[in-house]
């Protein structure tokens, strides 16, 4: 009998937890949008790649780790020497 009351309360508790999580997610999204502020590029300016070094100036440790990884060559222009696959039949 007491166990029945506990089982009856569980759906309400689970619903409250779900609603709480939804409110937290909405609050987090609102804060991110508010803190983002205006972008560094105006809407009428074309977006251009500023180069990897521009990131490395502030994020030195991350840049150094990336520079020595297999991800760094992925940013090279696609040429016959930078493409490793055989695409002759493609």
Q: What attributes characterize this protein structure?
A:
90 residues; mainly alpha; 53% helix
What does this structure look like?
The protein is mainly α and 90 residues long. The protein has two domains: 1-36; 50-80, no CATH class. The chain is built from three helices and no strands. The protein has helices at 2-36, 52-56, 60-67. The protein is elongated.
N/C terminus separation: 70 Å
> What is the alpha-carbon Rg in Å?
25 Å
> What order do the helices and strands follow?
HHH
Question: Which structural class is indicated by helix and strand composition?
Answer: mainly alpha
Q: Which sheet architecture does the biggest sheet show?
A: none
Query: How many DSSP helices?
Result: 3
* Beta-strand residue percentage: under 5%
Helix share bin? 40-55%
Total domain modules: 2
Question: How would you state the average pLDDT, rounded?
Answer: 76
User: Using DSSP, what is the number of strands?
Assistant: 0
Instruction: Label the overall shape.
Output: elongated
Topology diagram in text:
Elements: H1 2-36, H2 52-56, H3 60-67
């Amino acid at each position: 009998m007491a166990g029945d009351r506990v089982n009856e309360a569980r759906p309400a508790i689970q619903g409250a937890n779900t609603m709480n999580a939804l409110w937290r997610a909405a609050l987090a999204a609102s804060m991110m949008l508010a803190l983002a502020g205006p972008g560094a590029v105006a809407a009428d300016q074309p977006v251009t790649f500023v180069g990897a070094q521009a990131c490395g100036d502030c994020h030195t440790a991350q840049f150094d780790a990336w520079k020595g990884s297999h991800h760094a060559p992925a940013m090279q222009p696609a040429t016959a020497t930078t493409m490793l696959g055989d695409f002759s039949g493609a």
